[in-house]
Amino acid sequence: MHHQRLKPFPQDFLWSASTSAYQVEGAWDEDGKGPSIIDTKTDLPEGTSDFTVASDHYHRYKEDVALMAEMGFTAYRFSIAWTRIVPDGDGEVNPAGVKFYHDLIDELLAHGIEPIVTMFHFDTPAALNEKGGWASRTTTDAFVRYANILFDEYGSKVKYWLTINEQNMMIMLGVKLGIIDALTDNPARELMQANHNMFLAQARTMIASHEKFPENKIGPAPNISYVYPASPKPEDVIAADNFNSIRNWLYLDLAVRGEYNSVAWAYLEEKGIAPEIAEGDLEVLRAAKPDFIAFNYYNTSTVADAPFGENPDGRGADADQQIAAGEEGVYKAVDNPHLVKTQFGWEIDPVGMRMTYRAIWDRYRLPLIVTENGLGAFDELTEDGRVHDDYRIEYLRRHLEQTQEAITDGVEILGYSPWTAIDLVSTHQGVAKRYGFVYVDRTEDDLRDLARYRKDSFYWYQELIRTNELPA
Ligand code: BGP
């Protein structure tokens, strides 16, 4: 329904923004940090920056936190690089790496900004990857050890923890994005075993967090893109339910209920890629309970029936985390004729965010927070050091209006953490694809001075946070 009067944002709403270690920090090999799978990638997409310097946040974090405080952030979502803490993934702890995040967290707390820490954001230690990566339970054990090191070091300062960023995108698109390897002769089966091992790592981590710091909150952080049927044709509705079950609910059902939903499990069995489930796994998965659900939302997907014998690629687009493709007999992604796209071909669907909030709330009844949502665009720095990103303000405004609609629908929403706090390096589309409230002056191949400039959206977000309501 269209609400006549919208409920206000809660007084303690977490006004935040997000980054990830590998995309913002740089200093990829400094102060004892070990290489991750990102650092050892050799085939970066043509013309895109590497991640060696990124936005140099590692050396400039005090300036960046001051800018966040100037906007009035009450929280900041960032990830800790596993290989700064344990350079080879499961060996010696690196004191300099531990210190960096103490300094960052202390800087945030000194400015009254609540840290929201993602424990793992795509950057698997290269040394573990060489020992079989997530397909091996060695990595599961190494992650749980790493998680306990984080809780022991930062558990008294950090109240909000996210386990794994976008596990579903790692599994479904990770090979294409270069963030996971599948080296056996049955890559799909190997990825589903890796997926199961990640669910176990997440479950054991949530149990450890509750044992060590019962007052802290921990949850998953998948990329949720609610799936629409392309038409009321029943076969399209089934296709949409297939893709919702496999892309979205598979991941949240495991995190919240500790179970594989029947449609997803039937799909895995049908394809012969169901994972080995060891004795005791399901008990661990069921025992772990998240305190909230974080999810990353950029847009919805729209799918049609995909009969066997027909090409399931509905649009020939270059698939990525927000551009679904298709699978014969399961679903065929198509363009939604009611939506416009960004300069990078991502559909824009603010109302879909409200639908996604509702769908997750209805299924799990846990507090929610969107930990990524934003517009990647080719921003332009003017001669006088301004960036007139009214298009980003429009994007954020429309998504926040729908967030307020969802709050008025009765959904419990903890905060909003758009992608990104400051410009950084895209997973696969370079630095030119900018998302930040703060412009970072560099190009793909020219670091320039990496100076920070406040965009128009910086001031818009600052006013929104100050008043706790959307400017008229
Ligand atoms: C999500 C990742 C983020 C970020 C975002 C934007 O999938 O969690 O790390 O990269 O996508 O995507 P991109 O950077 O490819 O534009």
Task: Describe the protein's architecture and organization.
The protein is of the alpha/beta class and 472 residues long. The chain has one domain (14-467): TIM Barrel, CATH 3.20.20.80. The protein is built from 14 helices and 14 strands. The chain has helices at 21-24, 57-71, 82-85, 95-110, 126-129, 137-154, 167-177, 187-212, 234-256, 262-271, 281-287, 350-364, 390-408, 456-467; strands spanning 14-15, 75-79, 114-120, 160-165, 217-221, 227-229, 293-296, 301-304, 326-327, 331-333, 368-372, 413-416, 438-440, 452-454. The strands form four sheets. The chain has a four-stranded parallel sheet, covered by helices on one side. It has a four-stranded parallel sheet with strand order 2-3-4-5. Strands 6-8-10-9 form a four-stranded mixed sheet, covered by helices on one side. Strand 11 (368-372), helix 13 (390-408) and strand 12 (413-416) form a beta-alpha-beta unit. Helix 2 (57-71) runs parallel beside helix 4 and helix 7 crosses helix 8. The protein is globular. The chain starts with 13 loop residues before the first strand and ends in a 5-residue tail after the last helix. 51% of the residues are buried. The mean pLDDT is 97. Residues 20, 23, 165-166, 169, 223, 296, 321, 372, 376, 419, 426-429, 433 line the site of 6-O-phosphono-beta-D-galactopyranose (BGP). Keywords: Glycosidase, Hydrolase. The active site is at residue 372.
